[in-house]
UniProtKB/TrEMBL annotation:
Protein name: Aldehyde dehydrogenase (NAD+)
SUPFAM superfamilies documented for this protein: ALDH-like (SSF53720)
Gene3D superfamilies reported for this sequence: Aldehyde Dehydrogenase, Chain A, domain 1, Aldehyde Dehydrogenase, Chain A, domain 2
Key words, A-Z: Membrane, NAD, Oxidoreductase, Transmembrane, Transmembrane helix
PANTHER family the record matches: ALPHA-AMINOADIPIC SEMIALDEHYDE DEHYDROGENASE
UniProt superkingdom: Bacteria
One Gene Ontology molecular-function label: aldehyde dehydrogenase (NAD+) activity
Alphabetized Pfam families for the sequence: Aldedh
Segments passing through the bilayer: 142-164
Length: 500
């Protein structure tokens, strides 16, 4: 067994994943660190999917009757198990998704944080009491569990996105069926093993409450098309969302869509440039440009452009690119060859549109794909700048008028995350009022959201919201109840229907 494969097997063993689950299947799994095969997982077939959905339906019918604070207890135990497994699961995230260790650990921390949030939420699933126009009546709304929640997730947040959905879905009284990215099956199997430890400690949860179906697009489609799945929460590219949304609409299923981003930052003349430099550098180069919230477009005011962009270029030239298991690395690998090819197609297109490219070269060779992050000075917002290329490319543009910069900022199809660096209160507020994104920040970058806020974006990002705030409502259904405790039957709006 080669190095990474052996390390992976050791981690999976410690995390409690059965050996057969990752050695005896037909789908090879590769680590982007070296490109080598680290496992062979079994793909769920139609019978597996059918059985999983039947079990999830039965689990839902039992789980919805368990009091919500007791459901919260399961999520609390899961949070404890995650704390115990944090280092191993984080290392597995590094091996399978290529994140540097602190980002891998950060991802598992997000899972822990959402568990804490959901435990509190399990005692706060409240509705309103509403004034009624009829005497002797009471009107209220009650939130009920929804059903089976299908989660389809992307490779770049291989465990946190599932946890955002699952922790809320479970305290809300639902069961969960997860179709992880075909590029990251091992972290999913490990997460499931950790969850099963929490289930055993909990004791009497119904079988099939949370399940994993390993597979590609077809397995996702099976969840999307099955009437037993009440809500599909799908995270991935806008291309995927465009395929999934009409199919869900066709059967009137609920959808949470978390799709691509093309996130912009404005650096204004009054900005604290040290802060801006760090915020832009992390936003654009962190996770090797493979976050939905990665900074992809940068608008720098003319008066500070030359100095600021020179500093940024120096940061780009000096950043450590390489195997994330080495301590000097800040930028790990691209996930695979297709990601590399997409980047290599975008850079000449940018050049053809008048861009000046700095960086972007491949580092090393073989079956892994490491690149130096690219900073591209563009004469305007044209060509590939308008699209999300899921790689570390930052398009930099000048502006001289804030309203024009904000207009350009909004003038792309996606609407996920946005930021301005300024110390001018008026500029900050103008930006917050005008940004058309689901996330808008002042003096911090576009990536690295906390779980307490609702996460998601507008336009082609899909409109979904996950995680904090009141995102839990999407995992429940609302019933409006009116009770008449009088001995009369007044009709609403004064309608009379007198039977004589
Ligand atoms: P992807 O669209 O290739 O795949 C995402 C998931 O969807 C995978 O599990 C895949 O198997 C599944 N899938 C693909 N086509 C499907 C179909 N027709 N029906 C059902 N399932 C289908 O995305 P990826 O390459 O894994 O991830 C990168 C993309 O995800 C980027 O565009 C990124 O911006 C986006 N993303 C968005 C968010 C967000 O919260 N908005 C978070 C992470 C990633």
């Amino acid at each position: 067994m080669a190095g990474i494969e052996k390390m992976t097997a050791g981690l999976l063993d410690t995390l409690g994943v059965e050996y057969a689950l990752y050695t005896q299947g037909s789908m090879p799994s590769h680590s982007p660190l070296t490109g080598e095969q680290i496992a062979a997982v079994r793909i769920a077939d139609a019978a597996d999917t059918d059985a999983a959905l039947a079990a999830a339906g039965a689990a839902f019918r039992a789980w919805r009757d368990v009091p919500a604070p007791r459901r919260g207890e399961l999520v609390r135990l899961f949070g404890e198990e995650l704390r115990a497994a944090k280092d191993d699961l984080a290392t597995l995230v590094t091996i399978e998704a290529g994140k540097i260790p602190s980002e891998g650990a950060g991802e598992v921390q997000e899972m822990i944080d959402i568990c804490d949030f959901a435990v509190g939420l399990s005692r706060q699933l409240h509705g309103l009491t509403i004034a009624t126009e009829r005497p002797g009546h009471r009107m209220m709304e009650i939130w009920h569990p929804l059903g089976v929640v299908g989660v389809i997730s992307a490779f770049n947040f291989p465990v946190a996105v599932w946890a955002w959905n699952a922790a809320l879905a479970l305290v809300c009284g639902n069961s969960v069926v997860w179709k992880p990215s075909e590029k990251t099956p091992l972290t999913a199997l490990a997460t499931q093993a950790i969850f099963e430890r929490a289930l055993r400690r909990f004791g009497d949860a119904p079988a099939g409450l949370s399940q994993v179906l390993i597979g590609g697009r077809e397995t996702g489609e099976a969840l999307v098309d099955d009437a037993r799945v009440a809500l599909v929460s799908a995270t991935g590219s806008t291309r995927m969302g465009r395929a999934v949304a009409p199919r869900l609409a066709q059967r009137f299923a609920r959808a949470i869509l978390e799709l691509g981003g093309n996130n912009g930052v404005i650096v204004a003349p009054s900005a604290d440039l040290d802060l801006a430099l760090r915020g832009v550098a992390f936003g654009a180069m962190g996770t090797a440009g493979q976050r939905c919230t990665t900074t992809r477009r940068l608008f720098v005011h003319d008066s500070i452009y030359d100095g600021f962009v020179a500093r940024l270029k120096a940061a780009y030239a000096s950043v450590g690119v390489g195997n994330p298991l080495e301590s000097t690395t800040l930028v790990g690998p691209l996930i695979d060859r297709a990601a590399y090819e997409a980047m290599q197609a975008a850079l000449p297109a940018a050049k053809a549109a008048g861009g000046v490219v700095h960086g972007g070269e491949r580092v090393g060779d073989g079956a892994s794909y490491y690149v130096r992050p690219a900073l591209v000075e563009m004469p305007g917002q044209v060509g590939p700048v308008l699209e999300e290329t899921f790689a570390p490319i930052l398009y930099v543009m000048r502006y001289d008028d804030l309203d024009t910069a904000i207009r350009l900022h909004n003038d792309v199809a996606a609407g996920l995350s946005s930021a301005i660096f300024t110390t001018d209160l008026r500029e900050a507020e103008r930006f917050l009022a005008a940004s058309d994104c689901g996330i808008a920040n002042v003096n911090l970058g576009t990536s690295g959201a906390e779980i307490g806020g609702a996460f998601g974006g507008e336009k082609e990002t899909g409109g979904g919201r996950e995680s904090g705030s009141d995102a839990w409502r999407q995992y429940m259904r609302r019933a409006t109840n009116t009770v008449n405790y009088s001995d009369a039957l007044p009709l609403a709006q004064g309608v009379s229907f007198d039977l004589g």
